[in-house]
């Protein structure tokens, strides 16, 4: 994959993940997701509300993806590796969510974001390798 294609795709994926993780995290903090995420799912976890998980989603997951997107835009040699880290953070978040929450099963959005995390990692590696050649 060419440098420009990998960079453009990575910017799009990192940016999308950043915006949706920050927005979703803030929605959890504000209590706007009560219909989608009932409090019963938190039984047996260290959390009694979705506020702390919301902040983690917004700051850690969304923040790492935002940092990766900005780095990819400004310095692809750094953006590639940061995108790999952000992708691993995203996949870890999803695995943690699935293991901790008492939800019936994986949702399509969890599967989608797990795949997006893997894509961030793959594109980040591709961008880093392409940047070394140029």
Describe the structure concisely for a colleague.
Helix content is 76%, strand content 0%. The protein is mainly alpha-helical and 134 residues long. The radius of gyration is 16 Å and the shape is elongated.
Characterization of this structure:
The chain has 134 residues and is mainly alpha-helical. The protein has one domain (3-133). It has helices at 3-29, 51-74, 76-100, 108-133. The relative contact order is 0.19.
SSE layout and pairings?
Elements: H1 3-29, H2 51-74, H3 76-100, H4 108-133
Features:
134 residues, mainly alpha
Figure out the total of helices. Answer: 4
Tell me the overall shape.
elongated
The Rg value, from CA coordinates, equals 16 Å
> Roughly how many Å apart are the termini?
13 Å
Taken as a percent bin, the fraction of beta residues is under 5%
Strand runs, count: 0
SS class = mainly alpha
**Helical proportion?**
over 70%
Mean of residue pLDDT values? 92
Count of all domains: 1
* N-to-C SSE string, H for helix and E for strand: HHHH
Biggest sheet record: none
Oligomeric state of the chains in view: single chain
Low-confidence stretches: none
Transmembrane segments: 12-32, 52-74, 81-99, 111-131
Keywords: Membrane, Plasmid, Transmembrane, Transmembrane helix
């Amino acid at each position: 994959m060419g440098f420009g294609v990998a960079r453009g795709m990575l910017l799009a994926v990192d940016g999308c993940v950043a915006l949706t993780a920050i927005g979703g995290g803030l929605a959890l903090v504000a209590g706007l997701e009560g219909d989608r995420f009932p409090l019963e799912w938190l039984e047996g976890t260290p959390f009694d509300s979705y506020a702390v998980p919301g902040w983690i989603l917004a700051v850690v997951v969304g923040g790492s993806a935002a940092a990766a997107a900005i780095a990819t835009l400004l310095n692809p040699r750094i953006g590639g590796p940061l995108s790999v880290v952000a992708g691993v953070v995203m996949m870890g978040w999803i695995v943690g969510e699935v293991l901790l929450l008492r939800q019936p099963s994986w949702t399509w959005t969890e599967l989608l974001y797990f795949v997006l995390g893997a894509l961030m990692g793959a594109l980040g590696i591709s961008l880093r390798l392409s940047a070394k050649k140029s």
